[in-house]
Amino acid sequence: MNIVVCVKYVPDAQGDRAFEADHTTDREGVDGILSELDEYAVEEALKIVEAGEGEVTVLTMGPDDAATAVKKSLQMGADKGVHVLDDAIAGSDSVATSLILAEAIQKIGDVDLVLTGLASTDGVMSVVPAMLAERLGMPQVTFASELTVEGGSVTIRRDNESVSETVEASLPAVVSVTDQINEPRYPSFKGIMAAKKKPVETWGLDDLGIDAAQVGLGTAWTMVTDIQARPPREAGQVVTDEGQGGEALAQFLADRKLA
Known about the structure:
Number of strands: 12
Oligomer: single chain
Radius of gyration: 22 Å
Helix content: 25-40%
Largest sheet: 7 strands, parallel
């Protein structure tokens, strides 16, 4: 079972996020991490391989620092990594991203299963898995909270507010997993040391046969046109209750059309 896990390097949600002059996310001037939702996909891939045989390849695209996402995945236990690195990629939207990832997966070759997280924690769109499946000509089963691989098929359980669905697809397939599917492991000291010897390949657009004119901010279907900083938080209103607290609260809500 050869599994490719698509992972993303994202700005740390605990830090201050910033934007470039072209209104794209600053990915080099801020602290970044492996997207937390992608850790569940890495963990699920490791569990599948550990229960049988095969290998896990992690795939990412982005600036130099995106190698951090690959490194963390290798420390968790993945076997090897691929980093698509090219200046022309900057500003790529989901359509271009799916093109780059699909070409990279085809170059990796002999893939039985492609796993992704629920969404990236910076974009939160959840559309790349479907686009990726379309480009690869594979079936897609998304939002898996439980996953089983048996024979030549993959079966998932998809939970929503009212029902749980069981969906099956033939392999190879693209599967996105939720944060309910498992509990990602912490890299052990042994895993951290072993990751230093694991192979990581770096590919550019030329290696994938992609014209730079097909990706980047200039090809994006949407773009951010204006950015405004969040206004500072105003001091709250303190009401001294001298028997009129309830009326004061009701009036406060009414003035703001909240009651």
